[in-house]
Structures
1.
Amino acid sequence: MRNLVAFPLLGLAVMLQSAIVSQVNLLSGSGDLVLVILAAWALQERVASAWHWALLASLFVGFVTRMPWAIVLAGYFGVAYIAQILQRRVWQAPLLAMFSVTFMGTLFTHLLSFGFLSFTGTSMDIGDILGLITLPSLLLNMLLAIPVYTVMRDLARWVYPSVEAE
Amino acid sequence: MRDLFSRSLQTTIIFLVVGGILVLALGGFFSTASNQFTTGLVSIQTWISTRFVGIQDFVTAPRDIVSLRNRNAELESQVSQLQAQVIELQQRVSETEILAALVDFSRTSPESTYKAAAVIGRDPSPFLHYIIINRGSNDDIRRGMPVVTNQGLVGRIDSVIADAARVQLITDPASAVNVRLQNADTEAVLVGSVTGDVTVDMISQNVTVEPGDLILTSGLGGGYPADLILGQVVTIRSLEYELFQKATVQPAVDFTRLAIVLVITNFRPVDITPLVPQTTSP
């Protein structure tokens, strides 16, 4: 039942993303708060609802962005998948896992966007995209990663309280 | 009788002695002794006064600290309120300046009707250049309407919901605007890019384009009204083996600082799709 916190939290995250985070640009790149939240949530040990959160996040973001919903959905599902794989393998160093998921998730979502735009006939220079969009976005997402991970860890403890705590 | 005489004599003698001492003291004959006396008195007085003030401070100080703290809290609260007011007023001044500029702009083109809208968000994807405004179909905003500021063309309405609309900026990679280079008197197409840079493409090789040339909408295609300012030519790329010249453009609008925009509500874009000849396979 506490998982319903996803609705207000992701809704707020999408609003913050659209109103603030997207306006804070580094070169042509910008952070993706929703992606970082999803990555941090999917990395939590007891969380079993990462896929639901990814679906909900893509619904919310799909409402705001011009990017096709399927691309957004695939991107966020990819982030959840990467996070779940890494969570099992790098569980002893959660921050390292968080950085890794943020890094790979950002690359994956940008790759999808790049693929879609190329498919629709937009001419792009891969060097420009890497240097002006992807790398700055990676840096901004990394900056968001630590505070978001801390918040999501506490939220996960609240949503999935341990047996001892109960 | 004798007793009365002796008492009067004693009194007279005492008065004379005391009066004499006073006269001598006032005459400065006892200055050393009087100085020592007064110094002693002053020292005692100082000691008593200091101790009294100390005791008084000790008794009353806690009360003062509490009252000072309360006063400090009140003043801090007032300061924060005033700071909030200052920020709000600065914001209003800024908005007023923008609106005044927009009103001036709308007066210069009285044939158009405008609706002001605030920019409330941007597309989350860094690959796309769209903004979200707080006016929608409830305010008679329709798809395709041009969006401008006093500086020039911003873009056009891409999609609309009841109370909001998404605007495709001219910097978006999917945006293409038919333009006219004012000095060269030629037509071309202005296209956006993923990184937000704007270029003018399809400039004829026979035309001389100079940096600083003004770029305006041509009105061709019916997507935008004519003569809206877009920007200025910065550099030109002209290669002999290419069919057309290209020019990079400095947009007139600062897209990073868009706060309030105007939607031209009496402009209806023309859909020329039925007029475009269909390619049929032989």
2.
Amino acid sequence: MTASASAATGSQYDIELRKVTLLFPRPDGTGNLPVYENFDLVVDQGSFTVLLGPSGCGKSTLLNIIDGLLSPSRADALNVLGRDLRRDPDVTRQCAYVFQNPRLLKWKTLRGNVEFGLRGLNVQPRARWPELMDKYFGVVGLRDFMDYYPHQVSGGMQQRAAIVRAFVNEPRILLMDEPFSHLDEITAAELRRELVRLWTQDDVRRTVVFVTHDITEAVQLGQRIIMLTPRPAEICFEQIVDLPYPRKMDDEGFVEIERTLRRVLVERAGVPA
Amino acid sequence: MTTATTSHAISRPVGNGRRGKTLRRVLLGLLPVVVLVALWWAGAAALDRPRVYPTPPLVLEALGAIASGQGEVGSTYVHIAATILRATAAFAVSLVLGTALGIVAGRIPLVFSLLENVIWVFLAVPSIVWVFIFAVALGISNVVPVAALAALLTPMVLVNVAEGAKSVPSDLVEMSRSYHVTTWQRTKGLFLPYLVPYIASSARTAFALALKLVLVAEVVGLATGVGYEVKYWYTRLFMAPIVAWAVVMIVFGILVDYLVFGRLERWVGRWKGRTAGEVTLGRVE
């Protein structure tokens, strides 16, 4: 209890990273490769933040740091929900992570996989589990497939189950790492719509940090788009998107923002046009 | 005559599909056995010393004697039961211990480094030496064969399971860390199910070895078991019962392998239904 109490930081942000430095040793042993150097990021409660950047710039790494899966080499602050996650690692029980690939256990049914997460994050009371599962499997249209094994359903359905595994915990923070990048465009578009519906229908909105390298996806989902440069990753551009959800891709404002981002990505993030 | 029938079956075009194929395979498998038995019979008959070189009917007779339960050194069923019990106990101990240590060693590199050399030494010790070590240390008792076999089989299971535990996909481990899954839940829900194929194949080999090596321990210093029976007939220079006991062990070994481990392996393989499940393994960048 004392440890938790001393972990309180009084941060008003849901996520607050200050001067984060992460060094990876070079494979040839000639010193270290900085992935992040004195990197700052704050995320407001209830916001939908998109981290946009070229592949390999360390976007996923950042989510791993926020989730406590990876410790940076140095950091002045690593606060999640106002707690220092180095001193109170349990605070990341309030986070749920959707990975790039489903990462389902193939010996468990979709229901079993979702339960694995519920049990891990110790969602209480347990009596609510069936109701929670029923709700979120229903939202993504998998209610009739709960008792199937991953290999019996399509890749899109597997990823939906992975999304259910995260949402079912009703976490304060959702971390999503290019969750739709391995899916065909039709399935991906459908899941993006579902994600927006899930997120907007909650009374208290969850904080979402969503990583992507897809500009259109970023504009479709994010309230705030943060563009990162390759290593060492730096924020090179920020864009606030205040278009109403669900967003129409042929909307003038939408297209305009897309165009801006595309231009900036070429100019500042070192992506060839 | 048998050979003639066999070749007939082979040369006949396989008209009735699967059944014809199965029949052909069975007949092909039986052919060498038939040939060997025929050679043995001819040789034994030519040598004409049935006590040392028994003919197949004499071995069958000895098998009949074993089946009747009445033996010169007590009930044959008691001996069989003693052997199976010892082999099974040693097998169970090795499987549990080997799996537990294997998971720990596979997941914690430090433990693996610590155990690595010890395992090599254990694996290199000849089985008969284990028997004598435990016989001297513990005195002649039922514990000796079980301990000697466990010392022999545990490292084998350990190495296999550790190899498997090392190969658990790191993205699944990361997922379970992200969801704050407890060590126990991770072991039960992730490591053990993932390791089932490794454990099953170790179990198959370990049981087969246990069944063979338990006789060595029994020969050295026990008054019950199939090994004791074999030694008894050896001291009396009587071959037919020795071969008969071998047949008993062979049949038992094959039956267990087919009925228990064969089925287990098929049950384990049920996840390999479609490759779509593999999407969860191996991260594509």
